[in-house]
Here is the input.
Amino acid sequence: MEKLSLEELQNELSPYIDENGNLTLRSQDIYVIRKDGKRATLINHKDYTAKEIKRIEWCYSETDYHFFFGSQNQGQKLQQINIIGPALTKIVPWNLDKAQCPAGVNRDDLKPGYLLDLRVLQLNRLRAPLRESSQPSFVPDTPISHLEPNSDQPIVSFANDHIPTSALEQLKEAVGENLYIVSYVNPLMVRDDNEFYPYHIHYLSTDDLDRLDALNLEAGKQQDLNELQQAISEMKATIHNHRDDLIPYLESIKEQSNTLTAQSLARYYRDAGVQVGAVNPKDVQEESLLVGTVCTVANLQSFLK
Here is the structure.
């Protein structure tokens, strides 16, 4: 494996929480447990929102929107019910047959796969704080109150669209490891459950996932994670004593951290059959430099087919 520079190592160990107590975009990282169960691909926020990633659907304002899923007829936009609600579900051929591709996206490039809706997952605090801390700054997101016509086919109403009986077998069939990731445009801002906020959907193919870094879920499978966690904490506490060998010391922290993360994913998601989950970094460790932290997890092996 190619050695990382000091800057690259520091970037990989960058904080999930900034000095003001606010979550950073690292909190939007996703681990995807692949169908073989042997690896978990890490998808950073930029990996699924960058300009070069296929954007197939969005709603940014009252006039800037394009709805990919569901057909439209005489002002009525059909919304496919099988993908409304689940945090993780299948995209079957029927979903794509009815899709409305935006300019620049070729329908043939999109394959059946899985939809991961990050809007459904919340990084709510689950562990009570033991001491008072400085209040982070909460910035409210701007809701979209209504839609204005933005084309010669304006949307007059929405209607539910169920999968026809002729296509129900598709739900039982295996699909590829292609991801349709739904995310808020401003994920770190605060939202009201009664309002609608800007979002977009990006497409990552199996090849895209294979190009990203992945954790080996077989590494450290006999290790005691309490002992490993303590060892990492001790290494972090003495990092100032290793100025002369900082790079190999950080590499060691990263390696141990990866083992802790990999085994947390393997044991508590893969082996337990948990399909999806989200953890606020503040509930794992109340420090700025976190290691072994899992934010959002999607377990593709959890599907029966």
